[in-house]
Amino acid sequence: MNLLDRAEARRRDALAELNPDEQAAFGQYFTPVQAARIIAGLARLPVGESASILDPGAGTGILTAALVQRLREARPDLRIAIVAVELDTSLHAALRETLDDMESLGGITTQLLDADFLAWALETEQRFDLVIQNPPYAKLRTGSEAQVRLRASGIDVPNVYAAFMALGLRLLRHGGQQVAITPRSWMNGTYYSAFRREFVQAAGIDSMHTFESRSKVFGDTGVLQEAIVVSATVGQTPHTVVVHTSHDHREDATSRTVSYEDVVTADFIHVPATEKDAEAVAWMTSHATHTLAELGLTVSTGRVVDFRSRDMLHHESVPGGYPMVSATHVRGGVTRHPVGAKKPEWFHTDPITAAKLLVPGGTYVLIKRFSAKEERRRVVAAVWQSSRPAAFDNKLNFIHQGGQGLDEQVARGLAVYLNSSRLDDYFRVFSGHTQVNATDLRQMRFPSLAQLRELAHADTTDQASIDAATEAALGSVKSAA
Q1: Which superfamily does 3-278 belong to?
Q2: What mean pLDDT value characterizes the chain?
Q3: Cβ-Cβ contacts under 8 Å for 256 (sequence gap 6 or more)
Q4: For the residues 444-469, what does the mean pLDDT come to?
Q5: Of 381, 372, 375, residue with least CA distance to 333
Q6: Burial (CB count <10 Å: 0-12, 13-18, 19+), residue 61
Q7: pTM greater than 0.85 (yes/no)
Q8: CATH classification of 298-470, choosing from 3.90.220.20, 3.40.190.150, 3.40.50.720, 3.40.50.800?
Q9: DSSP 3-state assignment of 189?
């Protein structure tokens, strides 16, 4: 076996012996060998005579092993200095064996640090040419010592993996490169907005590798996150980004080069993995130019959480009750109520509680937060219209105007637009989430009010008619609101 094969054998042995509770506590998801090759493949070959490498949360060392094997094949004369940081002492024996394996090749020095990377990184003065990492995926507890120290250093993130990425950039020399495999969740949404802005200001994304399968990249570790590999260089912004795509970590990738502006924007990071993705972004950028806020509209999440409101929910209509609207009632772009669902379809409570949980009578646009397995589209929207107040389930988002209903034509136009293939194609590039968050909808772009009113007259009996109406209404940009 070669260096990488031996490192993979140690990874499998360590994974088999790992306590699941301790694994969850550390947020550990060891990198499979095929994924390690992909990550190492995004690293640039050094041009000098030596290179210093940092592997934060090194685990059993497979990422660095993949990188060293690649560097040795391409630059056998390169002197390499490696620092591997690992807090879990149960992995130190396997990690030390992998590091010793590298040193036996000659021209390589290694150092294993028994340390909490977050604390160490905030204090060390060492700087590196390359950071390669598969950071832990764990929430950063509010008020924890780690969060307090990070915030004091200007790093405000909700998850440990983003803290690792932020600190990795700080530990690079100018022109140094970081390659990291992480969830895609940092690329859009409010929670990561500050981190995202600072990341793209500090470094330019030069390449990425995305996987079409959500479940197979870390299949033997149990993680189902949508993973992406991102390479970024400190202090340099390229003109283009190379985007690699494969079904999972085992298949050969396709590659395409796209304009930097088609990937990195002020608000979020697109992942245009295919020509179709790139075309979806370009079309949306040209034809939809308004946020909901600019249209005077607001999106909120339904106020009724079923398990907290059991005594308020009823299967049959009750005197003084109101419609309880859930995702069950949104089907095929239409809202129907009641439908004889297994879930309660009626809501009743005291007037004070009702005032907090009900929305006034009127016209609203409902959007499912989670699409059903049988639905081909990720964004599913419909109009709700009633003269009576109604309760909206927490698994729905709803668009309103200052807490009141919408102009009916605007509402119907919004539903047509949200159910269009153009919107659905764009959303898949825009968001790495399986769910549709209110935050995503606030950041996305919409047609003008005039265009929405035109869309209100569309034939919605089939997808082709919806798409044709969207093309007709937005084909020539009408900026009047």
Answers
A1: Vaccinia Virus protein VP39 (3.40.50.150)
A2: 90
A3: 242, 243, 245, 272, 273, 274, 275, 278
A4: 95
A5: 381
A6: buried
A7: no
A8: 3.90.220.20
A9: coil
